[in-house]
């Protein structure tokens, strides 16, 4: 065996060491990895691909894991002593009433074209921070809003100079969030739906009917992609009043493929919109979809996010969970190298990672450490980012 059992520390030894770590110090390691990528000029060497409009793009999303039907960490008397357990009461007020518990993370992720996404901060919610009597949807929204207002100022303090665009769903289409973005010098592209900032929608509807806007504030295009005909329409409205000395800009977008039902979206934008920038702005706004795939990968593609690792120790559980995000960050970088793409072949990334682990276990370390690549003082990877 390449790694012999007797040379590995016992699981209790590993848990004992990890339980002494400070959660925020481990969390900060994600940001340090991002800063290392900056210092090594990964992003700027590929700015044309990774930094549309020369901006980094930051997404925020809630992440629910671990549904417990009974407390997983208890004190004397059987009471739940996990601060991260959010109680959910089902069938309240009926004979079938029961309580379950969930853990909720809110992840802050740098999102890039080509599918790359790098988590830079993970915020676990505590039961004392939110109103746990709400529905699941309302609770998730409150968790994300609270985390955004707590963490975005920290991120801007850590990264004071980089041009950063906040990508948000309709949850963030509100005055406090837009005011926060302005105070932090964050550009933003935030989805607006009908129920969000209704006065903005009404003003845009009125302007859209005028001859001035019909003639000068809309454009369209037709593109052939393989056998498909894609039609896109853009319409924009600048300097829309939000109240309290706040203004925003609105981009409306519609896309139809082969005359099917159109996909429609609308973004609140920090920057003025015109015919020359409406297309790339819509493309940047749609980057936010990539973040949702991160959580799917963590749950279903080998990272075992649903596993709680250290059930009886909430602090240790949290450290293990952060290590999962760090592992994702490193493998995400590796999966965009030319060497990894060529070695993977037609296999899935999960199967490829499993084969790498198998080789690590079965090939003697003396042979691995004597390989040509590990003898070099520095190893340089070439990256490939497919934006097609």
Give your account of this protein's structure.
With 388 residues, the chain is an alpha+beta fold. 39% of the residues lie in helices and 24% in strands. It has 14 helices and ten strands.
Jot down its keywords.
388 residues, globular, 39% helix, 10-stranded mixed sheet, 24% strand, alpha+beta
The whole-number mean of residue pLDDT values reads 91
Structural class: alpha+beta
What percent of residues are in strands? 15-25%
Annotation, overall tally of beta strands: 10
- What is the string of helix and strand elements? HHHHEEEEHEHEHHEEEEHHHHHH
Major sheet details: 10 strands, mixed
**CA-based gyration radius:** 24 Å
Shape: globular
Distance between the amino and carboxyl termini? 43 Å
Poorly predicted residue ranges? none
Helical run tally: 14
Q: Helix fraction?
A: 25-40%
């Amino acid at each position: 065996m390449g790694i012999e059992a007797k040379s590995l520390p016992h699981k209790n030894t590993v848990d004992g060491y990890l339980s002494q770590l400070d959660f925020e110090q481990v969390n900060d390691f994600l940001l340090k990895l991002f800063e290392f990528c900056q210092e090594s000029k990964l992003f700027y060497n590929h700015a044309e691909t990774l930094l549309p409009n020369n901006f980094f793009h930051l997404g925020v999303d809630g992440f629910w894991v671990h549904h417990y039907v009974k407390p997983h960490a208890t004190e004397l008397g059987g009471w739940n002593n996990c601060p991260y357990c959010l109680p959910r009461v089902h069938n309240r007020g009926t004979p079938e009433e029961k309580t379950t518990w969930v853990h909720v993370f809110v992840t802050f992720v740098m999102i890039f074209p080509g599918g790359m996404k790098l988590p830079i901060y993970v915020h676990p919610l505590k039961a004392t921070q939110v109103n746990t009597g709400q529905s699941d949807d309302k609770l998730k929204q409150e968790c994300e809003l609270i985390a955004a207002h707590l963490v975005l100022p920290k991120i801007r303090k850590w990264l004071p100079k980089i041009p950063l665009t906040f990508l948000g769903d309709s949850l963030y289409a509100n005055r406090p969030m837009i005011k926060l973005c302005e105070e932090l010098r964050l550009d933003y592209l935030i989805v607006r739906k009908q129920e969000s900032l209704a006065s903005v929608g009404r003003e845009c509807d009125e302007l859209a009917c005028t001859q001035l806007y019909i003639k000068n504030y809309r454009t369209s295009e037709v593109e052939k992609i393989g056998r498909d005909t894609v039609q896109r329409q853009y319409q924009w409205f600048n300097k829309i009043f939000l109240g309290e000395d706040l203004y925003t800009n609105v981009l409306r977008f519609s896309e139809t493929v082969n005359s099917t039902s159109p996909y429609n979206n609308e973004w609140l934008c920090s920057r003025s919109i015109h015919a020359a920038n409406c297309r790339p702005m819509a493309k940047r706004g749609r980057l936010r979809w990539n973040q949702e795939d991160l959580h799917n990968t963590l749950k279903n593609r080998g990272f075992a996010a649903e596993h709680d690792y250290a059930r009886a120790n909430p602090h240790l559980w949290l450290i293990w969970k952060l290590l999962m995000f760090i592992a994702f960050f490193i493998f995400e970088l590796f999966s965009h190298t030319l060497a990894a793409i060529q070695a993977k072949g037609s296999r899935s990334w999960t199967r490829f990672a499993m084969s790498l682990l198998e080789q690590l276990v079965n090939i003697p370390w003396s042979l691995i450490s004597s390989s040509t690549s590990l003898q070099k003082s520095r190893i340089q990877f070439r990256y490939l980012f497919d934006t097609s």
